[in-house]
Amino acid sequence: MTAKAAGFKMPPEDAPHERTFMQWPSVAKIYGGRRYLEETQAAITTLANAIADFEPVVMVADAEHATHLKAELSGAVEHWDIPTEDLWCRDAGPCFVVSDNGELTVADFNFNGWGGKQSHTHDGLIARKVAERMGLRHFDTGVVGEAGGLETDGEGTVIAHESSWVNPNRNIMSRDEIEQRILDGLGAEKMIWAPGLKGEDITDYHIDALARFVTPGRIVIQLPDAVDPDDPFSIAARETFEILRAAIDAEGRALDITVLPEPIDIRGASEEFVASYVNYYVCNGAVIAAQFGDEEADEIAAATLGNLYPGREIVMLNVDPIGEAGGGIHCATQQQPKV
User: Fold this and answer.
1) Burial of 140 (C-beta count, 10 Å sphere; 0-12/13-18/19+)
2) What 3-state class would DSSP assign to 113?
């Protein structure tokens, strides 16, 4: 039986949370050495403590890190002894779905290191281990991928890049088969696909670095001022925008799209640096987003998020090591809905 057939669906991120899950980065070679690992750990600590001002946080990490975590993390951050390799809880962590009668369970997308690009001996087991610890039912979606490669509005619509799913490094099946299994896993009705971009980053272009549902029928997307023909991400982003602009959601609505400009004068220097304002996280009472050192663009992003999420505090953090590692704040978090 699928999660959908059993009456489960994934609520929108802005629905009330019980807590946030995060993962402790622990393998130095993933980050290019001990120094960069420690910088990333410091950024994860900053992020966890910022979220903990608004809701409880669980940091999953091997027991060997317990003393360090206790010293550095807020008292609102709880350590669970589950070994990890990397920090990307959106992708390897538990994806929670909720039934109409308030039962919580986990839909597992069978994380395989973004198509075998990275070791995942521990990270590939986190979703199942969290479900076991919590005593929850565990649904295997029958598809391989990452929740960061999906955006759902909680009312039946999912958007995704084909490059992260219809890709032999994850799934050997048709797009229609993959789509049905995603919809069954999330309790949704309609997929809106854009091509995306294969092979240019470790995720094969996760949608959550580009476009997010704010509310049902409303999307925020980050775009450059003009398409750069020499930049494949620029071309793919514009293509996604045009598809979303022409799309109709599961409720028959056209999508209202807000465009955020890209930051230009940023602190991050690596080619892999992800400078995405839309890779923010919505927690109880706040939106936690990154700032990148481009003063004008940072201010526009903060103001835009304030308009999109009225009544929530907008917290802008310098967590550049997470961007250097190839992701963002949303990638590093996973919400547990309150039931």
Assistant:
1) middle
2) helix
Write down the residue that tokens 């299994």 correspond to. 181
Residue ranges of domains in the chain: 8-334
Q: How far apart, in whole angstroms, are the C-alpha atoms of residue 273 and residue 73?
A: 26
- If one counts every other C-beta atom within 10 angstroms of the C-beta of residue 21, the result is 23
| 92: its two tokens | 């390897």
**Rounded CA gap, 144 and 95, in Å?**
13
Active-site residues, by number, are 331
Instruction: Give burial (CB, 10 Å; 0-12/13-18/19+) of 224.
Output: middle
- Return the pLDDT at 268: 83
pLDDT digits (tens, 9 = 90+) for 118-168: 999 999 999 999 999 999 999 999 999 999 999 999 999 999 999 999 999
**DSSP category for residue 167:** S
Please, are residues 40 and 32 in contact by the beta-carbon 8 Å criterion?
no
- The continuous run of DSSP H or E covering 20 comes out as strand 17-23
Q: Name the strand (E) or helix (H) holding 256.
A: strand 256-261
Q: pLDDT confidence of 296, banded at 50, 70, 90?
A: very high
Architecture per CATH, domain 8-334, reads as 5-stranded Propeller (3.75)
Instruction: Share the mean pLDDT of the chain.
Output: 97
SS3 232: helix
328 is written with which tokens? 């963002």
> How far is residue 31 from each of residues 38, 85, 134, 209, 319, measured CA to CA in Å?
9, 11, 31, 20, 15
In tens, the pLDDT along 190-207 reads: 999 999 999 999 999 999
pLDDT above 90 covers a percentage of the chain that reads 97
d(CA 218, CA 140): 30
Longest dimension (CA), the chain: 52
